[in-house]
């Protein structure tokens, strides 16, 4: 540090002790608001093209599906523990498939609702496409795990999963379009 004189910064509103703070334009600069926060919020979905909402619906469906599948499989584990056999009874196998289908369908409805409700120009078609994408990605993940099934079994599984995902997301997209506050849904 140098040995020179120290500079003092002026105090805000400084002046004579006990004097009133300055008023008018010299008092303080006017507060500026961010333009993003000033929007009314009615046209939030209009900025994105409809195909962007397919990706957003896909992510939303996966986010909803993970905890639902975890809950379903936790219940199934308890059923398997009660069965006690190395071979699961047919009722437990049916419950395994049924609970996972219900979890997937509920997640598809949730993702489709998001697309329909907030999707701007996106509608039922984009919601259904997002459900089909999720089903295809989940099928590819199961295929990469190497579960035993023939080519015909995997093809049928893909068709069933895409049908369930697209139908559930389409239903959610329809519900989301009815829930829009901005008026009529887009013509599709």
Task: Describe the model.
The chain has 188 residues and is mostly helical. The protein has helices spanning 50-83, 90-118, 124-145, 151-178. Helices cover 60% and strands 0% of the residues. Helix 1 (50-83) packs antiparallel against helix 2, helix 1 (50-83) crosses helix 3 (124-145) and helix 2 (90-118) crosses helix 4.
Q: Helical stretch count? A: 4
SSE series? HHHH
CA-CA gap between termini: 73 Å
Please bin the fraction of helical residues.
55-70%
Low-confidence stretches at least 5 residues in length (pLDDT < 50)?
Answer: none
How much strand? under 5%
- What value does the average pLDDT take? 80
Using the alpha-carbon principal axes, give the shape.
elongated
CA-based gyration radius: 29 Å
Largest sheet: none
Number of strands: 0
What class would the helix/strand composition place it in?
Answer: mainly alpha
Q: Short description, anyone?
A:
Helices cover 60% and strands 0% of the residues. It has 4 helices and no strands.
